[in-house]
Structures are given as structure tokens and as C-alpha cells.
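quick one, 312 residues, struct below
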Amino acid sequence: MAVVVALGEALVELAAVGGPLEEAREFRRGFGGDTSNFAVAAARLGAPVAYVTRVGDDAFGRALLRMWAEEGVDVSHVRVGAGEPTGIYFLSPDGAGQFTYYRTGSAASRLGPEDVPRVLLRSARLLHTSGITQAISPSAREAARTAVEAAKEFGVRVSYDVNARPKLASAAELRALVGETLPLVDLAFLSAEDARFLFGEAGEDAVLDRLLELGARVAVLKLGERGCRVATRDGERVAAPGWPVDSVDPTGAGDAFDAAFAVEWLAGRPLSEVAKFANVVGALSTTGLGATAALPTRAQVERFLARPGEAP
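---
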């Protein structure tokens, strides 16, 4: 039985080998998509996870299904759409943020309310979705809304990453989505970049306060190498520093952080310990190329924390 359910978009990742995209002759295949990264990261940390999405009836869709199965993610609620291509993106090899997406008309963009498995949500403890899920298409937006409302109906906690993408939605559109979603959200994540896109140059405390005012029970501001800030509706505040690692590529680090935070928070750990653990997972996830290659297991996190003198 899945404890954690993630819903959203999965993509196949093609990372250029040995040079920038315009010069690349070889590509290394990987996997991405924010909520898929979340699902894989949570599974590697030992959580029973199910994923809800649509993939194409093609080689890339089959590769995603095989990868999830190997990671221990329940794929029984992944729909395979005939004639619907699996989305892909190309990634530069230096982690500099050069991405090219091919997702228009993809299988995941056709995700709709009819794909939301109420029976799965009824037995879960946490649902995770994102602003990207809402922004890729109107039907995916309705799917996310349907899933979140069903989760609240069943008493299932909801985590949500704003994941602002200016190419998918304007600041005004995303503010509207966030405003209608956060009243139903228990755990809200956003990055410093998301905060600037949505709220301008507001201070960190002001950003956290705004998320709580909009309805979130717990607000988490991700600060990359600087760690994170957390605030709760009950008045608790935590500032947790980042952890130094030999970073290769930050792709998917925020998704790994989300998964670690959600899994530990769901287990009832003290908020300071939850934030510390999530910062470590996010940092370790940057030590390989691509979104999922370096996602750590719980044992790897514990070994990292046990190293003499290891501290932020």
C-alpha cells in the first residue's frame, strides 16, 4: 500500500556528453520531471510510493515504467496512451541550466481528472503535486485540483511545490493558481527564485508569512546552498544551513529536498531534524549529472552524516 502518492509530469532526460547542446554528438539518457523525481527520491529513502501520470506507448514511456519499477515505485496507476508521445528534455552537461523541452501535446500534458485514482488516495497518507503539473495544460490543472480535493476529503495530507516556470505560466497566472491551491495544502515548498517571480524582492520572513496567510500549514523556503527556512501556522520557525558537497549538477535537487522533507515530516520528526535531513538529501543529489542519478538512499544519507567533522 502506497503511503506517498505523487501526481504530475514525467520526462525522459537527454544530457549532452562532452559539450554544449548545439555541438553535442552524444547524449546520455536519464529521467526527470519534478513529481517523478520526488517519487523516486522518496522511494530511495524507503517510503512506499505510487506515481500517477500518463506516458506514451513508446520506447521512452516503457523506459520510464521500467525505471520506476526498478526503483520500487508503484506504477499500477500510470496510464499508457496510444499515440501520445512521452515528453523529453535536453540538458547541457555542465549543470548551467541549459534546458530544451519537448512537452507540447505529450502524454503527461493529457493527464486529466479521469486519471486520478480515488481508491489509491483513500489509503494514502500524503499526496504531492506541483505548479508545473498545473501549468502544463488545462486538463492537468484539473487533475491536480481533483486529486488535492480528494485527498482533503479523505484526510490525506497534501504537499505542493510552487515550481514556478515563466515559460509555462505568467506570474499573475501562477499567483492565481497558488492562491486557490494553498488553502488545501499542508506542506508548501518554493525556492528563492519562485519567491522573486511571485512576490518580487520580499524578505524571507515575508515570503514565509505570505504562504501561511494563503493557507499552508507549513511553509518551506528553499535557499539552495544556503539551506532552507521553515515556518508553521503554529508559530514555529526554523533556519537550517546547507551542506557543502562537490556539486556537479543541481538538476532535481529541489525535488529531492521536497521528498526528503515530506517523508521525514510525515514520520513526525522534529522540524529542525526534518530540515537538516532534507538539506543533506538535496545536497547529495547534486553530486551526479542529471535529475535522478545521484538521489541518495537513506543509508547513504546516514553515512554522510556520520562522517567525522561533517557539519554545515
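The chain has one domain: 4-306.
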